[in-house]
Amino acid sequence: MERSAGILGIEIEKSGADEIARRSRGTPRVANRLLRRVRDFAQVVGNGTITREVADLALSRLEVDHLGLDTLDRRMLRAIIEYYGGGPVGLDTLAATINEESVTLEDVYEPYLLQMGFLTRTPRGRCVTQKAYEHLGIPFRGQTQLDFSTDI
Prior knowledge:
The protein is mainly alpha-helical and 152 residues long. It has 8 helices and 4 strands. Helix 2 runs parallel beside helix 4 and helix 3 (28-44) packs across helix 4.
C-alpha cells in the first residue's frame, strides 16, 4: 500500500494503509482503487496525508464497511433475504432482481461473500447465512420454507 501511495505521490501513514488494506478484500486491484478514492478525499477534506481517520471517513462515505462489503454486496444479500426469504435463489433470478449481470455477481461479488461466510451455494441456488443477517443487523428467523403439499 505504501508503495502504491508513493507512485501516486501521496503521503500515507501506516495506520491509513492498514485501514485501506483491511477493507480491500485482499485484492490489490481493489486496494489501489480504494487508495485513489481515499487520496482524493484526503486532498479535499484533509491535509493531503492519508491517516487511519481520513481513510475510515472516506471509506465510510464510499459505503465500504469494516469488512470490505460495498453497496452492491449488501444489496445482493438484502435482496436474497427480503425477496426470497434467505434463499435459495438462482443466480439469474437474483441478477434480474438487483439489475446486475449474473456473470458480474458470480465472478466479482460472490467469491468474497462465500469466503466471508455470508453466502452459500446449493444445488437449488444461493442462500444467505445467519452470519450475513447479523452483519446487516437483520433478525434471523431461519430461512423460509415453501410448502408444496397439496391439501386440496
